[in-house]
Amino acid sequence: MRFYKYQGTGNDFILIESETAHFPTHQIKQLCDRRYGIGADGLIFVRRPSNADAEMEIYNADGMRAEMCGNGLRSLVQFLIDRGNRQKSFTIVASGKLYKADVEEGKIIVDMGVPKILEEGTIDGLSFFHIDSGVPHFVHFCDDMHQVGFSQIARGLRYHPHFSPSGVNVNFAKLLPSCLLQVRTYERGVEGETHSCGTGGAAACVAAWKKYGIKGLLEVEFPSQERLQFDLLAHDDLLRGLSMRGHAAYVFEGEIGL
Predict the structure, then answer these.
(1) Domain 2-111+247-255 bears CATH identifier 3.40.1060.10
(2) What's the pTM value of the predicted model, to 2 decimals?
(3) Alpha helices in the chain (DSSP H)
(4) Which of 117, 171, 194, 213 is the most buried (most CB within 10 A)?
(5) 179 counts as catalytic
(6) pLDDT tens-place string over residues 145-188
(7) pLDDT tier at 198 (50, 70, 90 boundaries)?
(8) Strand partners for 55
(9) Which of the listed CATH numbers 3.40.50.300, 3.30.420.130, 3.60.15.10, 3.10.310.10 matches domain 116-246?
(10) DSSP string covering 4-56, please?
């Protein structure tokens, strides 16, 4: 079976175009393993529904189904472009929700809809925002983005009983001048820190709007040293929309025997 490896700001995925393929959990885990498989943060089955240009059926590296992935969606759009689609707008279905993506000057702009602010609070002495930007995210603003033990702290929060049974993705963020956000993400399903996370960046932008009142164009920088641009639309205390802009790129392809 043919596979394609893509990445968006360092968040990497295995793409398989098939209407019928379904892999058991252990097989997805093996394919995503960086020592015994192809290696990736997730696996995407590319389907062809009647109501959109493509459907993204995405699984995390632990083999479990994910609802949404911003970097994965941009990677899928780039895959469609590389396969000969020259249109400037695409519609992608993910977990039953329709997303629109536009192509402009080599960048892919994804309409993320209106993220939901689920709660604000404090856990273990850390103030946080709990935001659904396609998947649930915990966002905490801190001064030291390079603190030792981030993964250990984040893992404890990811499995915290407050967010049971599904758990939560954990983001530490810092606002710098010129509306630049630095974000580190411990991803649920990958069970570790990733080079970047599109929905995590989106959640951090929403949290920054609530905490600091900033809106409009924001940039988010990830541990990969790459950036995504977000455009946050808000009026008074009402969030009206959020879009994500960035690139995605082909890495390699090959055949897997099943």
Answers:
(1) no
(2) 0.96
(3) 25-32, 70-82, 150-158, 198-212
(4) 171
(5) no
(6) 987 789 999 999 999 999 999 999 999 999 998 899 999 999 99
(7) very high
(8) 47, 93
(9) 3.10.310.10
(10) EEEEETTEEEEEEE-SS----HHHHHHHH-TTTSS--SEEEEEE--TTSSEEE
Please give the Cα distance from 82 to 249 (Å, whole number). 9
Nearest to 175 by CA among 211, 225, 199, 202: 211
Distance set, CA 10 to CA 21, 49, 166, 223, 233 (Å): 26, 28, 25, 9, 27
Provide the pairing of β-strand 11-17 with 42-47.
parallel
Asked if 205 is an active-site residue, the reply is no
Characterize the bridge pairing of strands 97-104 and 107-111.
antiparallel
How far are the Cα atoms of 2, 52, 106, 111 from residue 230, in angstroms, in the given order? 33, 24, 16, 10
User: What pLDDT, on a 0 to 100 scale, did the predictor assign at position 148?
Assistant: 76
Q: Would you state the structure tokens that stand for residue 11, as one six-digit string?
A: 């968040």
Out of 32, 179, 197, 205, pick the active-site residue: 197
From the candidates 32, 69, 179, 205, give the one annotated as an active-site residue.
Answer: 69
